[in-house]
Design goal:
Layout: E1 13-17, E2 24-28, E3 33-37, H1 40-46, E4 51-57, E5 61-65, E6 70-75, E7 80-85, E8 91-96, E9 102-106, E10 120-122, E11 138-139, E12 147-148
Parallel strand pairs: 3-10
Antiparallel strand pairs: 1-2, 2-5, 3-4, 4-9, 6-7, 7-8, 11-12
Bound molecules: zinc ion (ZN).
Residues 18-20, 22-23, 85, 87-88, 90 line the site of zinc ion (ZN).
């Protein structure tokens, strides 16, 4: 009896690229896990409300192109090394002394699926009140493609404002 080679519907690797294309990365899929990081360091590194990462085992991570274009920022106190594209500034990955076998890559750099959905939230207590959290959106008249959310209702300060609940 011969064994027919298995054909997979999804590729075994996922490629990631920076904005200018100088650096290309690759991981074997599925990744180890994926998560949202709401902490200050992720926020400032990305200039965004939060960052979404794919965590890969280091042995399943490769730099395919542009290694010489990579710049690094080492935050020695925290034991974290962040790598960026030296040409376009795109955050490429970060590594921690605490988890030396892992590499974390921004999910946005991947153009294909990574085998893991971001179901975990780190430092959610640091989430900013200006972060979009899925509130209902309405089209803004006169600006095609622009949506807006209605201002949040202010919470009453005095419990007496809720006479039925107290
Ligand atoms: Zn680049």
């Amino acid at each position: 009896m011969t064994t027919k080679p298995k054909t997979l519907a999804t590729p075994k690797t996922a490629k990631a690229k920076c904005l200018c294309g100088a650096v290309t990365l690759e991981i074997d899929v599925p990744a180890r896990w994926a998560f949202h990081d709401h902490g200050k360091a992720a926020r400032l590194t990305h200039g965004a409300a939060y960052a979404t990462y794919v965590g890969s085992w280091r042995k399943r991570f490769r730099i395919l192109k542009g290694e010489d274009d990579i710049s690094q920022f080492e935050n020695g106190k925290a034991g974290i090394t962040r790598s960026f594209c030296g040409t376009c500034g795109t955050p490429l990955f970060y590594e921690t002394a605490r988890s030396p076998h892992m590499v974390n890559i921004p999910r946005a750099l991947f153009e294909s699926r990574t085998g893991r959905e971001p179901r975990y939230h780190l430092r959610i207590g640091e989430q900013q009140d200006w972060a979009y959290t899925g509130a209902e959106l309405k089209p803004l008249k006169g600006f095609p493609g622009v949506m807006f959310e209605r201002p949040k209702k202010k919470k009453p300060k005095n419990p007496a404002d809720f006479p039925d609940e107290f």
